[in-house]
């Protein structure tokens, strides 16, 4: 049975993260140890990741070995079809048209004008995160881009209310790729998970077969390190 998120996520708010992995069982061992997640069957061959009984992420097997091993951030929308049209009209691209995921909701995949990939989620019975902003859960998404002006215009136009509306708390920001990564790194979203002890979490990542991509650095939203799991999926750890 799906435990719904307690919140209703407004359009443009990050509402879910999922990992596409070659080996879901290996992913369960890695993230279960790192974040204290437990797991249960979800849709198809995917699994829910739970913390304290609440859904916090999902792990899915790659359907094609040529697909990247990645974490994807999805943004809430009441109408994935309409948002897809706006994305296309403003220079982005819909790479996977909206499709139903049982009664859970409607998903789609898109890119911004620079090619950074993100998901869309139109909620059905599954609204999104059951818990967030706590240790072991999603806390922030950072867009690394080469053209901050274009990114500001694109996302500001798409998600104006989430970014600038009264009481806005978008849970995502943007930075230049070269602030953290080599210049050849393509633009991308990086999911951040909160931890209580960043140094201890980095030790666990390495012990579990992952690696540190970028050692700890200070940001306006906390102390961050970028890591990969034991299959190569990148994500960030954030201590606030």
Automatic annotation (TrEMBL):
Lineage per the UniProt record: Bacteria, Bacillati, Actinomycetota, Actinomycetes, Kitasatosporales
Gene3D superfamilies, alphabetized: 2,3-Dihydroxybiphenyl 1,2-Dioxygenase, domain 1 (3.10.180.10)
Keywords, alphabetical: Hydrolase
A Pfam family recorded for this sequence: Glyoxalase
Top-level division of the source organism's lineage: Bacteria
Keyword hit for Hydrolase: yes
GO terms, molecular function: hydrolase activity
Name of the protein in question: Hydrolase
Keyword Hydrolase recorded: yes
InterPro entries: Anthracycline_SecMetBiosynth, Glyas_Bleomycin-R_OHBP_Dase, Glyas_Fos-R_dOase_dom, VOC_core
